[in-house]
Amino acid sequence: KWKINHSFNYSANFSLNKISLQQIFEFSDGSLALINETSVVRISPFGKVLQTKTFEQKISNAINHSEGIILSFSNKLLFLDIYEDNFFEKWTTEFYNNVTLTLNNEKNKILVYSKDGSSITFYFLDNENGQIQNEQKITSIKNHNFLNVNYAKNGIFVYSDENGCFFTEDGNILWTGRFPGTTKSAAFNYIFFTQDNHLVFCKKNWS
Length: 207
Hints:
By secondary structure, the protein is an all-beta fold. Strands 1-2-3-4 form a 4-stranded antiparallel β-sheet, with no helix packed on it. The N and C termini lie far apart (47 Å).
């Protein structure tokens, strides 16, 4: 329908959320956004470049929210949207440590986590103002083998290649434990968590 040509440079080492660099983001007014390491380019639904916003810090991640776009930098989050046809910074939240951004798309809940050598700390943020509502420190998952975070109907499942922990948004740890068959000779190739709260372990022979 339309094609856009724009001098928009990507670093070879830059990726957002492990998705293609050409991912399109959307503001609440329906306009679109392209994002690179330091800039957000706003584009109309008809392909016209409207505005460009440049940041001093590098953008490490970005996710779409129903009310705008959340940008993640090394130690802060920025909620960016459009108001009266201009960029509008709804809120900014800073952290002491480097953080990783994630989002529960079903509930529009914002979650970030930071890692150190002995624990992972999860922060639950208020959508309206970015303030930290609750935090949960997990010590059973070590930084060096941390793999993934999954949302379920009644909690959050965080796991490494050796052990996992399931906890609720109010900070109640439901269970934590070591997975079976996690020795080097019996390791699983892939582990995933279903929405009905089941763990599935996959090996090469599909057993």
